[in-house]
Design goal:
- It is built from eleven helices and no strands.
- The two termini are 45 Å apart.
- Helix 7 packs across helix 11 and helix 9 packs antiparallel against helix 10.
- The protein is 59% helix and 0% strand.
- The longest helix has 45 residues.
- The protein folds into two domains: 67 residues, no CATH class; 206 residues, no CATH class.
- The protein is an all-alpha fold and 322 residues long.
Amino acid sequence: MTTLDLPVDPLGPRGAPPVLDTPEERDALACPLCRYPLRGLSTIDRPQCPECGYRFEWVELLRARQHKHPYLFEHHRGRGVRSFIRTFVQGLMPRRFWSSLNAGHEIRPRRVVAYWVVVALAILLTGSAGSFAVQALTLYQQRVQFLVFTRFAGGRSPPRTAISQILLAAARTTFDQGSIDPYLLAAAAAWPWLTLGALLVFQASMRAARVRPAHVLRCTVYCGDVLVWAGVALLALAGLRWFGILSTNRMWDSTLAARQTAFSFLLLQAVATYRLGVAYRKYLRFDHPWATVVASQVVVFLAIITTLSLVYAQLWKLLPPY
């Protein structure tokens, strides 16, 4: 089921605490994926779990058991804010992050769920702020264009609209039924759980389906935090539309805007998929990590499209133009 594709430095990362490596310490270990006791394997240099096939190095499991992770949010309850920020920032470098974390580190599901709750709130808040900014810029630009057209036509200039009125109108239209932003934000917040469900379906069909779901949850949650950048993506789209880079003749076309927004979310999902592939390769060490992850994302994509077809009446806007 799994392979160890990269050698582990026996000395560990720079500044790592020393590891007590004795036959007794090795015999006390259990497979981190399936909890199968490893007693009797202490003399094997390249051990493999007899139950699930997980390959590992003794030093990495011993270090994970004897010392907690240096910054992981799960392991530093007393420094929640600092460990959250560092976990989020280090996650931007997925290869380095998943090389520092292995399955031997203790999983604390409640802390993982707490991390997801904070990330989900950040996705909803930043995404809502980005959507509000897009609506405000849209209304302001439309107002400017209308004033220019009226003066060019020689008509009477309409009264000026206060900025507060534009902001109030933007607040009313941010979560209008015709906007796709709320649905995509909800999908982004739920992405770790949707992916977890899809991966567990694949796991149930595998011959060696003994990986504990908590490991898969850890992978999806720490990979899905990249969707926090949804609000930044919306603001970037607003700026590109403002300067006419994405569209010149139909700058504020609602159909075109919906397609561009959906495409930006697909890009973020692609980044999350890449990070999940790295996690499956370096953390769970599957034989075919990328095939497994891509297949799961196909299932997630179909689930999101199916749900949108039921709740979003203007799904046709996302269809490619003829």
